């Protein structure tokens, strides 16, 4: 496989996320999307990116006619709301430009990122002399949505016609798998489970899939019950800290009553607190706000200064952990409907007898299901450090390439 210099742009789009600087990420992603732009898109892909444009337009018109938010906040919101579009376009362009080797290029990217992550972890443990879950995640990163896709593509390399030697495949699986494990991200573990079930076809309703899904749910409930009853400590051993995070999953983002004076309750359930404040703010501003939100530049008053992951102190939040709450704030229920429509277009399959296309259909269906869940706790495509928009765009473009190739041959 001959290396192509333009491939460096795509590697840079992923590596730049390690610096946790959104302004720099936006510039690099925008330049890459512009340099690799195509003159035409498929109808389905056009529908997908149009959904995100519509959410941006609703936010713009709402602010224009009903609110007068700060100019800096409006500019910031434009860059945030454009991110899913840019990421999807980058991935789509990549698939079209390097169609024959798109998946193997992405696997190489994933392995490269995994190695960097493991080096950072090793350095963090030595430099800071810690095995604390929170400390390691602070220094090395909280999650990576890109690597689970690479892991699943390697796991099912035959299904996706990825030509890779067995020994290299096993080595790559070990590297990427270890990196994912070291993130200790509950979301990533759930992502892998959903994608594996999807590729295996268990989200296509039949007797077999119902049995497997039911067994998976039962096993999950039993495992959770064991963890809950073991009563892991909030601050304890490496294992305790991780299991405690697992224990609070059912209430962390769904709790409706939170004691703000109890710092444990407040910090453990901050995602729920954000949602409550957002819904209350929208509700008390009336019908217009419920329908089309508070527009570009709008924020949610958390009521106190909070330290963010990048060390800044913020009271007025422009974005929440929950993508649905964020879209509700910017563009109301109308925006949420459009967002759900975009996920439908991403998940929609292409009818074909081609086995590889059908497996991509399954993987994209799993991506849609995961996107719904990740949108509730991790902002979906709108997260500043999100990279899965690039991969989903690539999968959409690569599937189209295979479909056109099949029809031309046929």
UniProtKB/TrEMBL annotation:
Keywords: Membrane, Transmembrane, Transmembrane helix. The chain crosses the membrane at residues 6-33, 45-66, 102-126, 146-164, 171-198, 210-228, 327-347, 363-383. The keyword Transmembrane helix applies. The keyword Transmembrane helix applies. This is O-Antigen ligase. It comes from Flavobacterium urocaniciphilum.
